[in-house]
Amino acid sequence: MATVQLDPTAVARKSATRGLRPGTGIGGWVLRIALAIVFSFPLLFMFVSSLKPDQQIFGDLSSIAAFLPVGHLSLDNYGAVFDRVPAARFLVNSVGVSVVTVVLGVIINSMAAFALSRMRVRGKAVILTLIIATLIVPFETLALPLVWWVNQLPWLQFDGFNLTLTQGWLDTYRVQIVPFIANAFSVYLFHQYFESIPKELDEAARVDGASWFTIYRKVVMPLSGPAVATVAILTFLPAWNSYLWPLMVVQSEELRPVMIGVQYFFQLNVSWGQVMAYTSIITLPVVALFIAFQRAFVNSIASSGVKG
Amino acid sequence: MALHQSLDRAPVRQVRKPSSARRSGAVRRREQALGWAMLGPAVLLLILFVVVPALLAFGLAFTNARLLAPYAPSFVGLDNFVRLFQDETFWHSLLNVAYFAVVVVPLQSGVALGMALLINVKVRGVNFFRTLYFLPVVTSMVVVSLLWLFMYRQEGLLNEIIARVTFGLVHGPDWLNNTSTAMPAIILMSVWQAAGFHMIIWLSGLQTIPADLYEAAAIDGVGGWQRFRFITWPSLRPTRNLILVTITIQALSLFTQINVMTQGGPLDSTSTIVFQAVRAGFQQQETSYASAISLVFFVLVLIVSGVQRYLTREKS
After folding, report:
1. A7 lies in which domain range?
2. pLDDT digits over A291-304, tens only?
3. Given this model, what pLDDT does residue A21 score?
4. Do B255 and A36 touch (CB under 8 A)?
5. DSSP state string for B197-216
6. Are B145 and B242 in a shared domain?
7. Do B146 and A275 touch (CB under 8 A)?
């Protein structure tokens, strides 16, 4: 790692003789390839090991075979994972919780940003400032009081014809979704984007008699694809990866998300092949999404840098 | 119309007045009401799940609230804080977090900057490398922690590689069960997971530097290190400040790695403030004590980022 840290100097020095194209010499490529190995081989090791029986995983550790799909390959570990934990249930839960959080988050945060950007709401500059101010509080400081708080919250329960008032949100789907729908940073991103859309467009629509809601739905939102993608990704990743929160608020097995499932593999005898199979199952969907929507992912991360 | 956009909000309203004078008061009231209806859900949820818990952290820290207590919380003054400041684990946690942050901030931002410089060239195939460097970022920290937990074992992958490249001369330690190597091991893994994230942020900063600056430098015969030192580095100033603050806050919040890999051990050598808060609030159900820890943590974050902002302020 220490050598890596020095590389701006090294690259620059290499290119001193090369004029305008720094980092295109041999040294630059050696560094790029070395870094590629460092960053991708552990994940390759995880995936390859998930296809091997435990004994072979340990046997292969001392040679390059650790990173190669050789020997007795099978999907046995994957089968065992589904026998050992309700993996399908966890996947359904995580997909459901993430998708609902993303959809509601996009709708609610973009509506708020639309009102702040386009409509005459008294004190909207102050409201926007207050919303952005909430970003200075890290979630970690809120999490513990929030557990106590969600346990006090009421909920209306419909069962058949009866409407009953219950107390406490612990151990539900809603406790995994509702607190994460509204997001100050998403409001901010949408607001920034909406401000870049010419207001003449909605003035024109107003003249044609369109309502505010129609302008939001038919004019502004269709033009905001990149902002929607950014917010969707920045909401999806933490929802799929969430660990601290469901660890504290969800006890029932049938409500748990995928990340909590890892605990099941350390209760009795540990099979590392199965651990690697389970972690591959819960990682590959996100990696596939990333590779399919690379540009959107990278842009969303770049804009999330604005935060802070 | 063009005039409208170049002005601030308040003047806009005055400029627009003549054109909108024909709008009746009722229309304006409807707009106001509809505006609040669209704003309402987000504001309500933010109040419920950000503002209230933040205030509760203040309130509950001075009570004896428990998660599932039959009694209503009562005021106990500074008891929780007195207890916290007498707790040796708290001071260990504070030191561990400081250690982690002091190493991770320069290491991670440096590695990320190096990677950004390496992929900020217009050469075929560079996007492939960007994708590989970014893979750990989309991998959950829980998965990364488990994977490295396996790699860090006494006879694990890392020690096998170390033995290989040193021809069997060096045998690595049992990384996570050793008070002196547990934290460095977690640091290395954390940098590996998150560097790709900050690489992208550096990259977006690098791409804002005008190309003619470099061209002018080339004409003057300035290249290599000098170019980095006098053009790239000063131009990255806003990006640098941003990365400093975000990595610091991320480092101070260290939790998942600890919870999955070491549970704070061995001998508190990897315990952190957030880990301690979760243990108190969740495992021991002492919401009030956990709130006190959270409050201390929040003050720490405020102080550290305040000091950073002061040190990196515009000196003009």
Report:
1. 2-72
2. 888 888 887 777 76
3. 56
4. no
5. HHHHHHHHHHTTS-HHHHHH
6. yes
7. yes
